[in-house]
Amino acid sequence: MGRPKVLIIENDDATRTQLEWALKDEFALLPAWDATTALALARAEHPALVLLDLGLPPNPTDPEGGLRWLQDFRKDGGQGKVIVCTGYGDRQYAVRAVGYGAYDFLTKPVDLDLLRLVMQRACWIAELEQERRTLPAEIEAEEEEMIGTSEGIRRVFEAIRKVATTDVPVLVIGESGTGKELTAKAIHERSLRKAGPFVTINCGAIPETLLESELFGHERGAFTGAVQQKKGKVEYAHGGTLFLDEVGELPLALQVKLLRFLQDQTLERVGGRQQIQVDARLIAATTMDLKEAIGHGRFRDDLYYRLGVVTIHIPPLRDRGEDILLMAQVFLKWVSEQMRKPILGFTKEAIQAIQAYPWPGNVRELSNKIRRAVVMAEGTYVAPEDLDLPGTEDDQTSAPFCLRDARERMEADLIAQALTFHHGNLSRVAEEAGISRTTLYGLLKKYGLRARRRPGRPSLDRSVQFPVKLRASGE
Questions:
Q1: Cα dihedral value 46, 51, 56, 61, nearest 10
Q2: Which of 49, 145, 306, 437 is deepest in the core (most CB within 10 A)?
Q3: pTM
Q4: What's the pLDDT tens digit per position in 384-440?
Q5: 434 in the Ramachandran plot: left (φ > 0), alpha (ψ -120 to 50) or beta?
Q6: Span(s) in the chain for CATH 3.40.50.2300
């Protein structure tokens, strides 16, 4: 892939020349000095990124010219990320620019090291969004909520790849709302059984007296009310995958029967005597500590070891760091498209609220909060009050606006994202940021960041993206 196209809209010749000199090795630059030329270039070249000065001819002292250009660019269908670089640092202009669809707002004189980091991150996001826009419509409709680049979720993706092509039982453990069923579906969709059924049963949602019949079926007359023969979920999963959610809730008697099925792939319906052969792969999930349940005699240890030939642990959202904002942004795009409501993103205060909240309900809670926010948002950006996060509204309304603090928070976030993207490779981070390793060490120390080296750069593996979708860093 070639260098990303960057449209530089800058009225001042000296500043434009300086930007071209600093960025020419990394980006394909499209210089413009007025609104008309810039809009024509944007229509012809479709840049991934725009650097916009608000002061444009014929009146360079009036920031309204740049704001109007930004509005025209969006109305014209421009998809590129717009970074405003201007001497007008008043908060009102930043708020309006973001409201009109700007990705970021930097004040002059612009720190070139920080600008490069912002641009690299914005171009990466633009690339991901462009790839998503080109996906077939039928794949778009299948999108699921398993997204991220954090170390914990990458281990999950790796486990999915390894176990999908086998038929071994898999035990998925994790808190409620972390995506255990999505993990099971991802395994099924990548397996040789993907053309077969994916049958789900929640063992904790069915009364114990009915659970055996639901799982294994029954013969006519097996009990009062059994007026006809009925197949169970296990039989319906023949040729595909059976997903047992909350398997820790199974009564001991049914645990024995499930163990028998795992051993020889046969079952007997309730009230029946015939051995029925069923070819189904079993994936189980639980929020329960099964080892503790074994110690209390509530779960069989032989069944535990049969189910957990491979165990996949889904980390809680609070331990997934950089994934939280990425997921929020992806959910926002999905939901706003579904509701046909033009929401462009989050305010910086909303981003801070999302990052500060512990998300006890995990991905399910995040998804629901974003859906609520889209419904409640009155402007083009989601505000903290739209999210309705407990304990965050007072903090957001009382926090004073400080440009220096905001810049430092942004700088720390960008460095953290760069470390994640390059897996702790400080040489690559420093090289792409255009700073020395010594400067980088100082910034790491200043912001309390640590580099955790991991081999390999995250890639967009299409075979894992659906239903496990995105594996890339986000805004």
A1: 160
A2: 49
A3: 0.56
A4: 999 988 765 444 444 444 555 656 666 776 777 777 667 677 877 777 677 777 777
A5: left
A6: 5-134
